[in-house]
Design a protein that fits this description.
64 residues
């Protein structure tokens, strides 16, 4: 059997069967090794902070 044939067979397996196969082989899948990285959340501004921010921006670009 060629490696390409084995690869195609593994790709055709469901995720559950892939995890069983990797457990039988004693290896970890790249999909299993990937951990979710925390996404950086933006700070939510209060109403007062938002108004102050907008006033500063409008003062800078006010038309004369």
């Amino acid at each position: 059997m060629l490696a390409e044939v084995a690869y195609q067979v593994i790709e055709a397996l469901s995720e559950k069967e892939k995890s069983r196969l990797f457990a039988m082989l004693g290896v970890r899948s790249e999909l299993v090794n990937k951990t979710k990285t925390a996404t950086k959340k933006k700070k939510i501004l209060s109403d007062a902070e938002a108004v102050a921010y907008l006033l500063r921006k409008f003062k800078k670009c006010s038309y004369k």
